[in-house]
Amino acid sequence: MKDVYSKIWELAKPHLDTRKNDIHTELAIQYAFRLLKGEGGDEEIVVPAIILHDVGWKSVPEELHLKAFGPKATMPEINRVHEVEGVKIAKEILEKVNYDQDKIEEILEIIDGHDSRKEPISLNDMLVKEADKLWRYSREAFRINRERYEQTFEQYMDRLRSNLDKWLLTNSGREIAKEEIENRSKDSRDD
Q1: How many domains does the chain have?
Q2: Residues spanned by the domain of 123
Q3: What is the pLDDT of residue 189?
Q4: Rg for the chain, CA atoms, rounded
């Protein structure tokens, strides 16, 4: 990872110690690199955007988190708060590392709607949205989200399978998700 990405990561970490966002972001970064390789896009936009996309959750009281996202969300409008707050925090971090101003604008635009905006505004936005969602298919997310949503192995597996085409827009993303589903199926045989 480039030195500037490491600096952004270090500045973001204090904002990612809620909602398991530290784990989520590390995995999303890995997925972002895989998506960039398969789909193209601008690494200098996508990587900082994925590192910073969820820093705004730190501004949302933890007792409201599960009301804002997931299968039992009752207050999805709270999700928008983390985007708005995330833009403020991301701007501060990117300016602190003297990131290119033109790139900052696009990164902030992506962060500002990464969950609430249904249609991607660019390939870079699509890759950030996709890397964000691919984490759900990882071994770590499978464990965390089953517990978080109080779902059985099969219930969570059904959630992943049934949303694959809804959540993932690129061929690379769908292939990665299918690979992860197969890995989770193998994980169940190891239990």
Answers
A1: 1
A2: 3-190
A3: 55
A4: 16
